[in-house]
Amino acid sequence: MVYSIISISILGFIVMYHHMFSIGLDIDSKVFYNSSTIIIGLPTGIKIYSWITSLYYKETYSQENCIEYLIYIYYFISLFIMGGVTGIILSSSIIDLSLHDTYFVVGHFHMVLSIGVVMCVLLEYILGVNITFIIMHIIGLNGLPRRYNRLYINRYIFYYININRFNSLHYLHNSFNYHHTLEIPII
GO terms for molecular function, please (predicted)? Predict the structure, then answer.
């Protein structure tokens, strides 16, 4: 997994030229960038295989039932795979020339980047809310009263309160950051 991420990072410097198939590159350059675009599919496939294998072992050996989280993760992976397949189709310079100014390229771009990011943000909302309020249930079951100015609590409850504070601030920060990124294109 680590080697595939490193190789994607290195090949990413070369692959950026596949956006320039339609500007009149010579044949040798097109073949080189075409090949590098196809080659980057191999470490990406290894990364996707690692994700799926990790999820399989999590489902097999885990005692928890977290199917609602896995739905978003599987949806993200399936969209990423569909975007990757369309990327392999577009890696051919001849096909890319004929499809360059069509919605196929727009669909490929949004399938890989936009929809996957939306699924990750929705998963963050679900996890953030659930972790915050489940910890409140645990603290309440341990007898912590509400509407007190000063509490004398033990170390066990204090641990859960700190987890709750950190998660609430993390969730709040991500919410404002997400809404801020939504407002930027409107301006």
Answer: cytochrome-c oxidase activity; heme binding; oxidoreductase activity
Contact 79, 116 (CB under 8 A): yes
| % helix, strand, coil for the chain, step of 5 | 85, 0, 15
Contact by Cβ (8 Å): 135, 156: no
Give dist(CA 58, CA 70) in Å, integer: 10
Centre a 10 Å sphere on the Cβ of residue 136 and count the other Cβ atoms it contains: 16
- In angstroms, the CA 43 to CA 1 distance is 8
From the number of C-beta atoms within 10 Å of its C-beta (0-12, 13-18, 19+), residue 33 rates as buried
Model pTM? 0.60
- Dig out the tokens for 127 from the structure: 């996890």
How far is 36 from 66, CA to CA, in rounded Å? 39
Closest CA to 32 of 101, 96, 109, 91: 91
- Going from the C-alpha of 164 to that of each of 49, 140, 151, 168, 182, the distances in angstroms are 34, 13, 16, 6, 27
Mind listing the pLDDT tens digit for each residue in 52-85? 888 777 665 555 656 666 777 788 888 888 888 8
- Within 8 A by CB and 6+ apart from 105, the residues are 90, 99
